[in-house]
Design goal:
CATH class of chain C: Alpha Beta
Number of domains of chain C: 1
Number of strands of chain C: 8
Distance between the termini of chain C: 34 Å
Structural class of chain C: mainly beta
Number of strands of chain B: 24
Distance between the termini of chain B: 27 Å
Strand order of the largest sheet of chain C: 3-2-8-6-7
Helix content of chain C: under 10%
Oligomer: heterotrimer
Shape of chain C: globular
Strand order of the largest sheet of chain B: 3-2-1-7-21
Largest sheet of chain C: 5 strands, mixed
Radius of gyration of chain B: 22 Å
CATH topology of chain C: Ubiquitin-like (UB roll)
Radius of gyration of chain C: 13 Å
Chains: A alpha+beta (386), B alpha/beta (458), C mainly beta (106)
Order of helices and strands of chain C: EEEHEEEEE
Chain lengths: 386, 458, 106
């Protein structure tokens, strides 16, 4: 392992973005080395809620989300493994008239992007989803969205990429990256050196540590999602449920996996540290979530929570990710800082970045996500995805 | 400093002795206990209305049990005792409890965790069948409820509890078909020098063995468990083991008491962010402590079987020592002579604990040799083969990774009963040392938290 | 053997306590004051519930509220951990997990 490894593309960071990019780059015939500090999909990619949701997203992100959704639909065939994707629908719910109007407006705005949403309220909503609580006034139903198992998806991409010929180097922390004579060079903590013609940084919460070595720091902050799961009960809650609200304490989302457990998260985010690699669930946040999930599905009050967890997610001030080519260095690309909503996008991001790296262009618009928007220290539009 | 807020979790021997020492120093700790009544598991009290004598309940330990119960009765008015309070989480200097469905918060300056132990388990093919109980469970059925776990009972595993429960069952009138111990007799002989650290306890142990010999039950040592036979509906029908002679023998029964000594309930210590260390002798991780029970976290102390399996007497000593450490760290007078004596006794307890661990070793090879179709995780119905495949085919050579990919340790019990065996299986399948395979990280809640608790804000 | 099966636990003493009656899956069973729910049920029948992920019946395991194997349901859908819940006269319990419509019956 003392020989410097050389490949067409060097990917730093093995979350779902890096692992799927490695897979799709191999499909395009590029030689790939992916370097991961820990294990594939271990951080935010493995600890998130598992939403495969398009509705509610920042509208200019929908083409990317649509492309990703199409890949989710054929993921098992593509990877030869089951990531438990369940296109069981997504229901975005409102307690107030104001939020009901807002999700209705979103439905109108999303239609030109090819996302058809069904507005439901009153008895029609309740007849269709009789488990909803009395406070729910309206819902926006996205029939083709759903959920998947985040513990499985990124590792499945990593293994498929490996089978397709990518070099997957786990337990290797990259400390320095640089451009050297027209190619890229990365050095790991244990002294190994890797070289490539192009580089893709998909290092999540640690992305800015690397991008700043190329003079492009990003104002990332880290938070821990507050996740929990109940004991298993018979599978009966098909759609993923989420509340559209402007009150942070009210933000809650839940889904039932086929085995029966109900996974939920939301509310106030918890402490996380990119330095110690730890993130925590605050007990008071868990209690707060319990009081919220029973507003959506009152019958949940009979169940028990058996486990909570967190992870290290990175956020940007405008709540949308960094994705696309470097604004300063040719051959360098970024995809990190997905602000807690990257899981659904993962396969699409990998596909788009592979296209971009292999062909120099992409058929899906990603301009809003350029790192250049932070170059002057200013931020532009806000995302707003409740 | 104002009166320090001291919380003790667990009203067993360690927690009660810690409370007593603190009360004697003029302090008033809060004592949180999950149980209905004090005493913990080992000196568990039977419910109101039961009439058996302490001698019937606790045998040779009756005097100690009664002494502990009595000292608790004297302490009760001098402490803030909260029975039926499950400590489900600890964070930022606050213990979070749930009691009768209501959440509570107890902020502390000092936390003594004396959460006790549960059975250390190793799966046997068929252990998911109805009628298989942990040894501790079998003992509770008898001690707290005057019941046997079946008509014809086999006790399988190893450790002091195996023999004790078998004899207790026999004396209470249950039919014990066989006592099947995985430890060869030679191990017990070789451990004698260390066991002799507590001569009186050694004599009790020898009497126990004598009682078992006289009972007429079949006793086999050095066995290898093969299978617990059973039917989906009827439950257990028998146990097969390979005897030391190599012969495979089946024992018909309708109940099995299974256990391999004890493991600390260290989840709260983990949530309090105490450092853990690997013990190569017993092949497990446990929290780091100094000789008096200080953890790696300032203000958090650990005592009793929840940190080292020394048994009830050792737990009393370690509880008192932890209280001495608290007093010293608070800058209060410490009863020096008493502490010196406790430390000396503590060293004896530790030597005896090592002797027991050598006499009844954790049979790691049995986990490594489990067949692929054996259920490993009872909660989720995950097989040994599924874990092995994740370890060898999917690179899951670390337990938390293996858990993420297979769900082993993700069920309701949070890996209490499959965690140690799962780590052995991963280690054996990958060739990675057990220490590097690691331990399942503790995740709240320590036990299931009712969703309805969210309706009652503290 | 039917759903009830024969009793799993055997009483070895303490039988002069007051008798109480409970209902399990619609059948009346007799238990003793001071019994845990687990003991009340298993001195009358062979199991507490069924595994969610296998064919087998379950009857508890640790009896000290650690393994979480012994959950049963009240007739109106609440969950009780049988090993550390005292049996009370008049309790009505079911040992089958409530059906698929559970979330519609808040």
């Amino acid at each position: 392992m003392t020989e410097p490894q050389r490949s067409d593309v060097l990917i730093i960071g093995g979350g779902i973005m890096g692992a799927s990019a490695a897979f799709f780059l191999r499909q395009r015939g590029k030689s790939v080395t992916l370097i991961e500090r820990g294990l594939i999909g271990q951080q935010a990619s493995g600890t998130n809620f598992g939403n495969v949701r398009r509705q509610g997203r920042y509208l200019p992100q929908l083409p990317l989300a649509n492309r990703s959704r199409a890949i989710w639909g054929r993921l098992n065939d593509l990877l030869g493994e089951d990531a438990e994707f369940l296109p069981s629908g997504h229901l975005r719910l409102a307690y107030t008239e104001e939020m009901a109007e807002r999700i209705e407006q979103y439905g109108r705005d999303a239609r030109p992007y090819g996302l058809e949403l069904e507005m439901l309220s009153g008895n029609i909503l309740r007849d269709r989803f009789p488990f909803l609580g009395p406070e729910i006034r309206a819902g926006s139903y996205s029939p083709l969205d759903g959920h998947a198992n985040p513990r499985l998806a990124a590792p499945a991409f990593g293994r498929a990429a490996k089978r397709a010929g990518a070099a997957i180097v786990e337990r290797a922390e990259v400390l320095s990256v640089e451009q050297e004579g027209g190619s890229f060079r990365a050095q790991t903590a244990d002294g190994r050196i890797f070289r490539a013609e192009q580089m893709l940084i998909t290092a999540g919460a640690w992305g800015s540590r690397l991008s700043q070595q190329f003079g492009e720091p990003a104002p990332l902050v880290v938070h821990g999602p507050q996740m929990a799961v109940t004991e298993p009960v018979p599978y009966a809650l098909e759609p993923v449920l989420g509340i559209a609200t402007t009150i942070p304490e009210e933000i809650i989302y839940l889904r039932q996996v086929k085995r029966g457990n109900i996974v939920f998260g939301g509310g106030i985010r918890g402490p996380a540290s990119a330095e110690t690699l730890r993130a925590y669930v605050k007990p008071e946040n868990t209690l707060g979530q319990l009081s919220q999930i029973t507003r959506i599905v009152p019958a949940l009050r009979r169940l028990n929570v058996i486990r909570v967890w967190s992870g290290i997610e990175s956020y940007l001030p405008d709540d949308i990710p960094i994705m696309g080519p470097s604004a300063r260095v040719s051959g360098l690309h970024y995809a990190f800082g997905f602000c807690g909503h990257g899981f659904q996008l993962g396969p699409g991001v990998g596909d788009v970045m592979a296209e971009l790296i292999a062909t120099g262009q992409t058929s899906t618009p990603i301009e809003p996500f350029t790192i250049a928007r932070f170059a002057g220290g200013a931020t532009n539009q806000t995302g707003g995805h409740p | 400093m104002a009166e320090p807020r001291i919380i003790i979790v667990g009203a067993g021997p360690a927690g009660i002795r810690a409370a007593g020492m603190l009360v004697a120093a003029g302090l008033r700790p809060v004592l949180l206990d999950e149980g209905q009544r004090d005493g913990g598991q080992i000196y568990r009290r039977q419910p109101e209305g039961f009439t058996r004598t302490p001698e019937q309940l606790y045998g040779t330990e009756a005097a100690r049990a009664v002494a502990l119960h009595q000292s608790f009765e004297r302490l009760k008015p001098q402490i803030d005792y909260r029975p039926r309070h499950l400590a489900w989480n600890v964070a930022d200097g606050v213990v979070h409890t749930i009691s009768e469905g209501k959440p509570g918060q107890f902020a502390y300056d000092v936390l003594i965790i004396a959460a006790g132990a549960t059975d250390r388990l190793l799966p046997v093919k068929g252990w998911q069948h109805a009628g298989v109980y942990s040894l501790g469970g079998a003992q509770i059925a008898l001690k707290a409820q005057a019941c046997a776990i079946g008509r014809k009972v086999v006790f399988l595993g190893t450790g002091p509890l195996l023999q004790l429960v078998a004899l207790q069952y026999h004396k209470a009138g249950a039919q014990v078909v066989a006592l099947l111990d995985t430890s060869p007799f030679l191990k017990q002989v070789l451990a004698l020098p260390k066991l002799a650290a507590r001569p009186a306890m050694l004599v009790k142990g020898l009497r126990l063995v004598g009682g078992l010999m006289a009972s007429g039950m079949a006793i086999h040592r050095g066995v290898t468990p093969v299978e617990i036979h059973g039917e989906a509906e009827a439950g257990v029908t028998g146990v097969s083991v390979r005897l030391a002679s190599g012969e495979i023998r089946r024992f018909d029964c309708d109940a099995v008491g299974l256990g391999y000594h004890l493991r600390p309930e260290a989840q709260l210590a983990d949530l309090a962010r105490c450092a853990f260390t690997f013990d190569a002798k017993t092949r497990q991780f446990w929290p780091e402590i100094d000789a008096d029970g200080r953890s790696s976290v300032a203000g958090v102390y650990l005592a009793g079987d929840g940190v080292r399996t020394q048994g009830a007497d050792g737990a009393e000593i370690s509880g008192a020592l932890a209280a001495c450490a608290v007093l010293a760290d608070l800058g209060r007078p410490v009863p020096e002579a008493e502490r010196a004596a406790l430390r000396e006794q503590g060293r004896i307890m530790e030597r005896f604990r090592e002797g027991i661990a050598e006499a009844y070793p954790w049979p790691a090879h049995l986990a490594a040799d489990l067949p692929d179709d054996a259920i490993l995780c009872r909660c989720e119905g995950i097989t040994v083969g599924e874990l092995r495949e994740a370890a060898t085919e999917k690179g899951a050579d670390e337990v938390n990774r293996a858990k993420a990919l297979t769900r082993v340790g993700m069920g309701r019990c949070q890996g209490r009963y499959c965690g140690h065996a799962g780590a052995e299986i991963v280690a054996a399948a990958t060739g990675v040392p057990l220490e590097a395979v690691g331990r399942l990280r503790g995740q709240a809640p320590v036990k299931p938290l009712p969703v309805a608790a969210g309706e009652v804000q503290p | 053997m039917g759903s009830s099966g024969q009793a799993r636990f055997i009483r070895l003493g303490e039988t002069s306590r007051a008798r109480i009656a409970l209902t399990v899956d619609g059948e009346t069973i007799e238990a003793l004051e001071g019994d845990s729910l687990l003991v009340a049920i298993l001195t009358a029948r062979g199991r507490l519930r069924r595994s969610e992920f296998g064919p087998e019946a379950r009857s508890g395991f640790c009896l000290m509220a650690a393994c979480q194997d012994c959950w049963v349901w009240t007739a109106d859908g609440h969950r009780l951990r049988a090993c550390d819940t005292p049996a009370r006269a008049g309790l009505s319990l079911v040992t089958e997990q409530p059906e698929l419509s559970w979330p519609n019956r808040a």
